[in-house]
Specification:
This protein is an all-alpha fold. About 85% of the residues lie in helices and about 0% in strands. The termini are far apart.
Length: about 150
């Protein structure tokens, strides 16, 4: 493997490889947002489970709690799926960065890998957004704003 010593080639390789890094920033922000939602889902589920175990609820409220736990489980699965897809997206973008940098700095002609990995990363990001959308739709459907307590 012959490494070039030309600073312009290395500089151009870095510039080319840095462009996908902006997508990594978006992915990390999304992971933080979804992880926060997952933590809230887990906290709510634990609260409901504790109420059921302590027998503090009437049979009607206990039934509602079990229904909400089912919805929380679905939301948790969607949030976990979103985090998994976002992590896979970050991995694919990382592969893209490495391949683009190597393609510019050494004689490594694997641009098809960079195209495939970038597109796979974008598809994973879009699927993660769909999971996030589904989770938020379920969450807002659960809101009753006091209507059932009247």
């Amino acid at each position: 493997m012959n490494l070039p010593l030309d600073p312009d080639t290395v500089s151009h390789g870095i510039q080319l490889a840095v462009a996908p890094v902006f997508l990594l920033t978006a992915v990390s922000g999304m992971i933080g947002a979804v992880a926060n939602r997952l933590a809230r889902i887990i906290d709510r589920a634990r609260l409901l489970e504790d109420r059921i175990k302590q027998g503090l609820a009437t049979p009607v409220l206990e039934n509602e709690a079990y229904q909400e736990l089912g919805e929380l489980r679905t939301r948790g699965l969607l949030a976990n799926g979103s985090i998994g897809l976002l992590t896979l997206c970050a991995l694919m973008i990382g592969v893209t960065i490495v391949v683009l940098f190597l393609g510019e700095t050494i004689d490594f002609q694997m641009f098809r890998i960079s195209i495939a990995s970038f597109l796979a990363g974008v598809v994973c990001f879009l699927c993660a957004l769909l999971c996030f959308l589904a989770e938020t739709l379920i969450a807002t459907r659960l809101l009753n704003f006091g209507k059932s307590r009247r």
